[in-house]
Design brief:
Blueprint: H1 2-8, H2 13-19, H3 25-34, H4 38-51, H5 56-88, H6 100-119, H7 124-137, H8 139-156, H9 162-171, E1 191-194, E2 197-200
Antiparallel strand pairs: 1-2
Helix pairs in contact: 3-4, 4-5, 5-6, 5-7, 6-7, 7-8, 8-9
Length: about 220
């Protein structure tokens, strides 16, 4: 019936078939993201990339969405540590071990970055994010690994000025915070106390990180 109606309307059956083809998973993923259904969009694009790993559209959307997720999880890990310092009343210049919850947050962020690099191993923003996370997680052990990644990026693209700038910040221990990465004014808590009341730290805008080097 549809073919007959299409012929009466002057449309070929071929054009009719094209018009009623179901949307691809990439299109469904984009629609889900546009509607704010981020997790559903991620699931659909993961399925699309797994089914068609050589499809440029699927790979590009996978990288973009998973990089955004990795950035969000990296910020979440940093915030989890700040909240943990506040809860445990740890001074910023005191050696400490991250609690299991903070460790898990950093593990999730690292896994999200690796998801991007699995699909696009040369993605420079994902590699920059990985270097920053390694350094933020543990400055002593993370510094060599972060610098190795950054020097590789510098060699691959000498025109990228962001890379040497970041290298200099990591290579030279920060004089402002003693190279802890924590705001020395609020001691990593993100808040100060004035007249018995807690206030957001004006030096680090409540993030608890050194305004000079902790943004890495």
């Amino acid at each position: 019936m549809k073919v007959r109606a299409a012929r009466k309307a002057g449309l070929s059956p071929t054009r009719l078939c094209i018009s009623i083809v179901a949307p691809t998973k990439v299109e469904e993923a984009k629609a889900a993201l546009d509607q704010g259904e981020f997790e559903r969009g991620l699931r659909l694009i993961e399925e699309a990339e797994a089914e068609q790993p050589e499809d440029p559209a699927a790979r590009e959307l996978y990288v973009v969405t998973h990089l955004a997720r990795a950035i969000r999880l990296s910020d979440k890990a940093r915030e989890a540590r700040r909240a943990d310092l506040l809860r445990r009343k740890i001074e910023y210049d005191v050696e400490f071990q991250d609690s299991p919850g903070v460790v898990e947050s950093f593990d999730q962020a690292t896994a999200a970055i690796e998801d991007v690099l699995r699909v696009d191993p040369k993605h420079w923003k994902a590699r920059m994010l990985k270097a920053a996370l390694l350094f933020r997680r543990d400055r002593e052990s993370g510094r060599p690994a972060a610098l190795e990644i950054l020097h590789g990026l510098a060699a691959a693209d000498p025109t990228n000025q962001q890379v040497p700038f970041t290298i200099r910040k990591i290579e030279r221990p920060c004089a402002r915070c003693g190279d802890t990465g924590f705001c020395s004014h609020c001691k990593g808590r993100g808040q100060t106390t004035f007249l018995g009341m807690d206030r957001k730290c004006e030096r680090c805008y409540g993030r608890g990180i050194c305004p000079v080097c902790g943004v890495l």
